[in-house]
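User
Class, as today's exercise, I want you to study this protein, comparing sequence with structure tokens, and judge whether sequence predicts the tokens.
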Amino acid sequence: MDRRGFVKLCSGSAAAFALADWTHRAAAAEFEAAPPARLVDRGGVPLKAADIPVGEALVFAYPMAGVPCFLINLGDRAARSAAALHNDEGDYAWPGGVGPKGQYVAFVAICTHQMSYPQPEVSYLRYAASDSELAGAPGRIVCCAHASVFDPAEGARVTGGPAPMPLLPVRLAYAAASDGLTANGILGMAFVQRFFKTYKADLNARFGPGGYREAVGDATTCVPLSGYSGSVPAC
């Protein structure tokens, strides 16, 4: 995405990213460094990685208020780096998870098929830590809207269903001294722009005019999916 496209994306937002804070890609399919945001709990206290549950995803917004993301603790199933992944912007290498065992990963929680995403009323996208009929194996992200399945331990690659590409990866940094996590990059802003265009009316209704484009700031709140959406269907 070029500089002009990014400025257009953020126009009208009182908290738009300063261009100096966003490192643009020289080539396709590389992580874009966004302003870092600490992951915090509902009380604003920095989240301890050790407190992240293994049973469900936590939802947080990054790098803008209208971009929902999943934070997942893979537990004993540590993430493996994956080089043969592809999205709208080309081939890319996913570096794997962070933390003592590489068990913490994050992805944009928007299905790449028809853009189903977690909303306050319902989320058809969820992390199935235990096996489910659709997932076919434990530890998969499933979309109950159209039966797409993603493996978060391998860069959220597609393992089933109609989704054409993996979920967008969010880059995390882990601080061993504090056991804290920070989001500091994303790969796939072209897809995010399409999402914003597709759901503009819904996002404006929820966040206020243009509010979904506002930067999250230096901290972003993590909420269990079961507490974020009123209904999370199983599939």
Notes: Confidence is low (pLDDT under 50) at residues 1-28. The chain has four helices and 14 strands. Helices lie at 3-10, 189-198, 200-207, 225-228.
